[in-house]
């Protein structure tokens, strides 16, 4: 498995491949060539067709501002689906040309040579990791540090700061999200809509949902988020961690970092042994995986045993099996934003069940990962990030029929 650095990517939403990757490429080139006054960008294939809806242009322009940016769109099937060519100028003099491929998860490749990241984890399944940890009498966090090195802590601190900012920025924002759906941002309403004599369970539901909405709305608006494990599911883990950090004084930054490390380990296992792509396995691979990561993180915050952490992650994934990816109009808004909130609440519930019932479980985390993956492979393509089935299709039918 790769380092969890490749799971937690920081950049522009709403798409890790269409927005975050191009934005990261622009940032690298701006730093590499600081003396520019104009940039010409050619978007190819998938980026040319769907880049506008995924705010590709906005992310690139935001990085280069106040530099003038021109765009061109081309189809060339010999090139990678998400290819960009950047051309830089100063005083009308040509400075550079760089070709970039956005290969998914916010990762980018310059030129034609793909440098493959090293697989640093010696174990490939959770059962192998669990047995290793129990034999050495170390925790899952100790295992991550043993493999990644202590320097991963500094990176996870940056991840946590970014997650906090995305929550806090989203809670303050108002208005309508980009796109034809005209979805109104709701996080600020949720955080402020306190009920008189509000019961604790209602307050928890409202606050966790508000935090998930905040991050997911920031993502939909093209803000800076962390893939956890994807842009479309980026609100789940931050919502759970932020809520617990606010609620409990004993949950300090050190506990949060440990929880992020363990969440990353579980996300890595899903990514390595199955998929975290909605295009491959539906939303169960995105929001389901995020819920599983958040449940493992929540269990870690409360120092539960390895078996309890595993069970929490397994429950979270098991009850997302079969979840389709059917975003209306292709925008990461409906039903994606609400799903992040529901999954955050489900992660907390999964941890509660695991605390009481881990000694009676029959399903392992490895088993549920493989079940999710096979379910995704069996799923009709119309229910996997194409907007050709499910809610996306029915929305168009009911809208045209004026049925609401």
Biggest β-sheet description:
5 strands, mixed
Structural class: alpha+beta
Report the mean per-residue pLDDT as an integer.
92
**Total count of domains:** 2
Percentage beta strand: 5-15%
Helix content: 40-55%
The Cα radius of gyration reads 21 Å
- Order of neighbouring strands in the sheet with most strands: 3-2-4-5-6
Alpha-carbon distance between the two ends: 48 Å
Total strand segments? 7
Give the H and E element order. EHEHHEEEEHHHHHEHHHHHHHH
Short synopsis of the structure:
By secondary structure, this protein is of the alpha+beta class.
Q: How would you describe what is shown here?
A:
The protein has two domains: 98 residues, D-3-phosphoglycerate dehydrogenase, domain 3 (60s Ribosomal Protein L30, Chain: A, 2-Layer Sandwich); 275 residues, no CATH class. The protein contains 16 helices and seven strands. The chain has a five-stranded mixed sheet. It has a two-stranded antiparallel sheet with strand order 1-7. The mean pLDDT is 92. The longest helix has 22 residues. The protein is of the alpha+beta class and 404 residues long.
């Amino acid at each position: 498995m790769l380092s969890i650095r490749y799971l937690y990517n920081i950049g522009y939403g709403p798409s890790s491949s269409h927005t975050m990757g191009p934005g990261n490429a622009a940032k690298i080139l701006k730093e590499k060539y600081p003396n520019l006054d104009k940039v010409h960008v050619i978007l190819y294939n998938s980026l040319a067709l769907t880049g506008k809806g995924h705010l590709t242009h906005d992310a690139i322009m935001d990085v280069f501002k106040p530099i003038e940016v021109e765009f061109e769109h081309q189809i060339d099937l010999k090139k990678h689906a998400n290819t960009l060519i950047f051309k830089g100028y100063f005083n009308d003099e040509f400075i550079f040309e760089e070709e970039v491929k956005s290969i998914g998860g916010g990762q980018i490749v310059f030129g034609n040579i793909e440098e493959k990241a090293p697989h640093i984890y010696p174990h490939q399944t959770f059962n192998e990791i669990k047995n290793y940890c129990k034999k050495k009498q170390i925790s899952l966090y100790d295992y991550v540090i043993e493999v990644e090195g202590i320097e991963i802590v500094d990176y996870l601190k940056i991840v946590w700061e970014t997650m906090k900012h995305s929550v806090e920025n989203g809670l303050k924002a108002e208005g309508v999200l980009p796109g034809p759906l005209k979805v109104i941002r709701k996080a600020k309403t949720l955080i402020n809509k306190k009920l008189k004599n509000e019961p604790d369970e209602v307050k928890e539901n409202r606050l966790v949902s508000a935090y998930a909405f905040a991050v997911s709305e920031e993502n939909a608006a093209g803000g800076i988020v962390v893939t956890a494990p994807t842009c479309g599911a980026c609100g789940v883990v931050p919502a759970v961690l932020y809520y617990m950090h606010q609620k409990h004084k004993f949950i300090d930054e050190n506990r949060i970092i440990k929880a992020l490390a363990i969440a990353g380990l579980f996300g890595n296992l899903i990514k390595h042994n199955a998929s975290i792509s909605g295009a491959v396995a539906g939303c169960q691979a995105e929001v389901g995986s995020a819920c599983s990561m958040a449940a493992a993180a929540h269990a870690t915050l409360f120092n539960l045993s390895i078996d309890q952490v595993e069970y929490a992650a397994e429950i979270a994934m098991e009850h997302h099996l079969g979840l389709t990816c059917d975003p209306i109009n292709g925008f990461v808004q409906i039903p994606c934003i609400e799903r992040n909130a529901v999954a955050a609440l489900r992660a907390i519930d999964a941890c509660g069940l695991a605390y009481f019932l881990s000694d009676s479980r029959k399903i392992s985390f490895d088993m549920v990962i493989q079940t999710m993956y096979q379910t995704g492979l069996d799923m009709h393509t119309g229910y996997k990030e194409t907007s050709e089935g499910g809610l996306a299709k029915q929305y168009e039918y009911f809208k045209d029929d004026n049925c609401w």
